[in-house]
Specification:
It is a single chain. The chain has 2 helices and 3 strands. By secondary structure, the protein is α+β, with helices and mostly antiparallel strands. The chain has a 3-stranded antiparallel beta sheet, covered by helices on one side.
Length: 72
Amino acid sequence: ASLCIPSVHAIHGKEEIVMDFGGKVRTISEGFPREKVDELRKWVLLHADEIMKNHHKCGCHDYPLNMIEPLS
């Protein structure tokens, strides 16, 4: 059995990043802007409770997910 690490997948243009709920980068494409990594980390930490609620909804196939305020 594989372990599912709760994570956020984000796209910036053609670049992608996967960050876990603690702010650790799991995977990142070569051209993903460093300043966007820091912004995403702040967003993930700020909205951790909301993100976890959506994670649980995904596990239960309870769609649609709740909207979370985007980065401004």
